[in-house]
Design a protein that fits this description.
The chain is of the alpha+beta class. The protein is built from seven helices and five strands; from the N terminus they run αααααβαββαββ. The protein has two domains: 120 residues, no CATH class; 85 residues, Alpha-Beta Plaits (2-Layer Sandwich). A five-stranded antiparallel sheet has the order 2-3-1-4-5. The longest helix is centred in the N-terminal third of the chain and has 25 residues. The radius of gyration is 26 Å and the shape is elongated.
Length: 236
């Protein structure tokens, strides 16, 4: 079992002057590319229902492991390799516009697979990628960690002369289980106000009727209901 997860590189590979076996290099790069395809494929499967991925991000996930593996092979020593990987992490942190923790997780997964392959741990790297990718797909598809209640953000624009203090309380009590006023914002030089509520809709609440009744109170100005988790909107 130890041999199964051992490195294909010379265990005495400790400095940059040591030559790289072309056969091992090809095996490492090809395996790293395969690891990239596994990670990107897992991302597409996990997010296939919502379509929340771009071609550029998929290409990044495929190309990142072989790039990291190549850097690690050239650097050679484990200490220098660690600094190289730390530099790659810093590049992702300060140069990327990624904001979703899920996307950052897949980036780190690709980096980890590329690092393992670059050090010659081919079997270990692939097994690591497959197990983590499968876990992420299963957790995403089963909705692990998602909210079970119907939490929303409600934004209501109102004219400046409307007393908003309790203007919508009866409607909120009728259609929601809980509600909380989060923010009051002045718009158009004070001509309008925007109220932002965090609400949990009742199970049988009719959103269309809810908005219609709100429009009767706010002078038919803009009303927006935003899902608290996925930022999808229902706007009038």
């Amino acid at each position: 079992m130890n041999d199964f997860f051992s490195s294909i590189l010379d265990s005495n590979l400790t400095d940059i002057s040591t030559s790289i076996d072309p056969v091992n290099a090809v095996i490492i790069i090809v395996t790293a590319i395969a690891a990239g395809f596994i990670v990107s494929g897992a991302y597409m499967i996990a997010n296939g229902k919502t379509g929340e991925f771009t071609q550029n991000f998929m290409l990044t996930l495929v190309a990142l492991p072989p790039v990291v593996a190549l850097i690690i092979m050239i650097v050679g020593s484990s200490v220098a390799g660690a600094f190289s990987l730390a530099g790659a992490f810093s590049l992702i942190r300060f140069r990327s516009s990624l904001g979703d923790p899920k996307d950052i997780l897949y980036i780190f997964l690709s980096l980890g697979g590329g690092f393992a392959c670059g050090r010659g741990y081919i079997t270990f790297g692939i097994v690591f990628i497959v197990i983590i990718s499968a876990l992420l797909v299963i957790l995403t598809r089963t909705g692990y960690g998602t909210r079970k209640c119907d939490d929303r953000h409600l934004r209501i624009k109102i004219p400046e002369d409307l007393n908003y203090t309790h203007a919508f309380d009866d409607l909120l009590e009728k259609y929601t289980r809980t509600y909380k006023l989060l923010r009051i914002k002045s718009l158009d030089l004070g001509a309008l106000f925007e109220l932002t509520y965090f609400i949990t809709l009742k199970k049988d609440a009719d959103v269309h009727e809810f908005i219609d009744e709100l429009r009767c109170r706010n002078g038919n100005l803009t009303i927006m209901i935003t899902a608290a988790e996925d930022n999808s909107t229902f706007q009038s």
